[in-house]
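Input sequence (461 aa), recorded before submission:
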Amino acid sequence: MRFPKAFVAGVVAASAFCGASSGAPAPAAKPKSTPVTAQDDKVFQFALQNGMQVLVIPDHRAPVVTEMLWFRVGSVDDPPGVSGLAHFFEHMMFRGTKTVPGDQFSKIVARNGGEDNAFTTHDYTCFYEQIAKDRLRVAMGLEADRIANLDLSDENVRTERDVVMEERRMRTDNDPQALLVEQMHAALHLSHPYGRPVIGWPDDIRRIGRTEARDFYLHHYAPNNAVLIVAGDVTKEDVRTAAEAEFGKVQARDLTPRWDFSQPARLGETRLVATRGDVKVPLFLRFYRVPSYPEAKPGEAEALETLAQLVGGDASSMLYKSLVVDRKIAISAGASYDGYARDDGEFTVYAVPRPGVRLDQLEQAVDAILKAYMATAPRPDELERAKTQLVASATYQRDSQFELASAYGSALSVGLTIDDVQEWPARIKAVTGDAVKRAAASDLDKREAVSAYLKPLQAPK
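Predicted structure, token format:
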């Protein structure tokens, strides 16, 4: 899930972005969930005969392209008892084929002047290459090859399983904040697989073998379960010709149906207190379970997005100004809304106290600010500033092909449409103060929340 920019980077890496394979470059940041619009909104969509969906976003400012292949498979699709399989398979896709063995995939991309990586979330897995436009067929050919001919030998599975276990030790087991977030998600989502970590529980990862890997590959990694997005100096005719030549020859497969999960009502707020010797800085953190963009009523998700910006989006937000600047009881504070999910979204608030300030004091101060938004609509100037900041951020992201492609890919992968992406700025501009107040009052319900304190272990006197 997405966290505020000021939140600790290690938590983001461990809980939201689970890294690239051992054969890929160092992990890049997970794409932001804030939609952006393409240049002149000229986006073309078509399908190949094998069921692969294709989206073309022309951007002729430089002779480069970004190719992204989004599979509708994430950790929610992990079989019972084998959590982490989707993330593990992100790694396996870099283990090579008979024609492109070992780590040659990334080496070939690099020799052609490009870079590649991948990431897994609860809802989808994405692989991407950024490369010169005259090398697009090279990237497509490599992706098509590993969809059809991946090397799933026992040795490759064992090797990559060990890599994932080490990644978990480095990013989660050795990071008290990441462990806390993991426990909070498990408490927040109850029976829903969003409560399982994307990287998987340690004992589940150890169960992954060749049989599990092969079954997962055959029933999820298929062209009829993927969306190909190409952004850059191309035309729809260029992409159609290349995609039909490279991906069109890959056969469709029978897919494992995706389950719909019902969520039991929560009876009350859950609270966690973790005290550990490796904690250097105390932290107050809360997750609310709230409607996502696909689930929300018209305008509700946009109101939550605006509320998060008002409450804790940046240094001009109420949490930061009140707790950090004015009262000086926190060194950091923020909020965010992660609504790009097939099922429930999350609204996050956090604060890091100044030395000598108790966590319960800080929590009370945070609650007072939230209650004010529940009781009273934001001032018109405050509301307009927040909306302008959100729309401006989306506009600035238009300069990045990666962000352009990511906006559409993440939306389509959770059940939204091209129109949802392109109309997002107008929908944000239409948010009213009363809508923000309603969203705060109805969705920031402590019965649908997990609050946590992370404390350092006090030395004996």
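Checked by second reader. The chain has 17 helices and eleven strands.
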